[in-house]
User: What shape does this take?
Amino acid sequence: MSARHSAPRATQVFAVARGQYDNIGDIVLRRQLLDWIRPAGDLHVYVGRSPAGYDEGLQLAPDDKVYRSLRTWYGAALSAALRGRAAYAFKPGEIQLTLIGMKEHLSLLPLLMALRLRRGAAVRAGVGTRDFAPLPRALMLPSILLSDVTLWRDDATARYMRRGGVMPDLAFGEGGGDADVASFRELAPERDVLVVSMRGDVDRPYPSRAWIRAVRGFAESNGWRITVVTQVRVDDERTGRLADDLGGEAIHWPPDTPHDLQEHRLREVYRRAAMVISDRLHVVIAAFTDGAVPVGSPVIPSDKVDRHLRTIGIEGATVDAGSDDEDEIARRLSALAARRTELFDHLLEARQRLSRHRGEIQQALGRSPGAPRPSVHHLGRVGDIAGGMTQVVNGYLEWRFPEVDVEVITSRGNPHDLRAAAVKGASALLRILRLPRRSSVLVAHLSGGGSFLREGVLLRVAHLRGLATVAHLHGSSFALFAARHPRLTAWVLGGADRVITLSGEATEVVQRAVPQSRVALIPNAIPGSRPSPKRNLVVFGGVVSYRKGIDVLQDAWEKIDAPDWELVVAGPVEDERLIRRDIRGLTFAGALPHEELMALLDQSRVAVLPSRQEAMPMFILESMARGNCVVSTDVGGIAAVLDGCGVVVPPADPDALRSALQDVISDADRRDDLARAARTAFEERFSSAAVFPRVEALWLAALAERRGASVRS
Assistant: This one.
């Protein structure tokens, strides 16, 4: 056992980290779970007679107790459970529903019963099976019933077991960070490797000649080098043979190479890979999380890779390695390579789910007193609803924050449905009254009018309860609203531990009501995008209204000389009397789902927003992210955002707008330079990877300050 370095905590958490010592994938799974459960208490880990590099690969902490003897470990676990100080986590991975394969689940029944009697906890996360017979399921039932949380790693296992939830495989949490994964959506020039790894078990068929020719030809057509790797030692002989047949390099696993060093060697390859092809699930996932497009390729019929990818929303990511149709194999590989953006979007979503399940596991095990994982609750709406405020909240839900969990308290509905608004407001109030004070942050998204009053009252209630509170200001007319309602503004913002603004003007207004130290100007952020091929298209996105300058845009467009260009105005029409439908090359698309508007921006070369009032419109950032040259007006925070990477004209000036649009339409070089500069500015200053860490730090600062105030009182 390792030496202790700190005083023991109340809970002793026991886990089995022994696995297939010749399989890097087993290390990856166990390492992730150990990281999840370590905050719950002192960790006791059984590793058996592990070989060199195995423990290091698990990244065990100095304070973890390591056991070589199963009997000693079991005795310690049972003793702690009977004293009421224990928790247990089943090892993740695949179980074979045979008597040998189920020994952990059967032999640990006494420990599980002791935990249940003494109010301990047991969790099962990231477990799957490949056998689906009725009798083993019945034998598993007592173990499942005695567990506090059961989360299977694929839908098929969950349907078979009939009890427990579903989570992505733990290995989806490894590899690059979330910011890296977001960048993987575009193929970087330095990614010039096609990774291949195939099972080499006894009697395992070899891939077909057509598959060999197709994979080799596909790599050559893309200018990629083939590297065949060994992630499971039994595959090593096949690695050499495949490398010879594919004309590639072989990364073997020599007997004297420790586990941690072999994983390091593989990760270096995966970080240069454009694609990975394998019938090994955790080869596919490991390379995927380091930036390679995942392709499952079984030689004999198997849905293992397919169903684990399907669990995170990825369909059709397998290619038959036994097929004799060379053209079809090459076609499918090309189709999967073209899906890069979509595939890594699904990986980011999977990590969001893993973050939530991690919180669920830690809550079940019982984190140390006074240190629950913080949760940030946003007042507002989510979904495909028009409005930048909702898109901001959607973005928070889609991002995996490392230190907090993010949820939404729905506090509003249709603006014209007063009854529904009252019901949702009352429901939101009840939820706020039940939130734990020491681990909750409430974020109220505020603009003007009714939203400021409605969410403002809820913010004040949360503040009076002692919750950490953040006011996140939106809306183009906040300064005007604050000038008209100074007492209401001061009263609401006085209940905020922190205030987020979107423009310098709003910051100045807020600082009249609250101390400067509480105010932070942080721009909105959205996920990035991989732009599609462009066409001669200008897009306006937003409510078609006087405030958005639709009259100015129509006057300007009517005088522009651009016969082969089209202007599409996308958004709900607020005042039909402003609309002129006789202008050449101008199309009113009406209100579009957000995805359709983004698809338009993917195709367009220019985005235009001639508003008379704004704070920091999401449409501007979405246009920058999608490689548009942006033309807008000097209102709110727009000029600061487009400084050096867009064109800004005075509001309500059709001649200035016409001149700016004509210039970027006619001068392709200037237009492209501005679009590239906008994309760069977006990535550096306004992408989710750049902005969300700042927002998370602000939330945590508000929580730390509130906890400190609670202790002092």
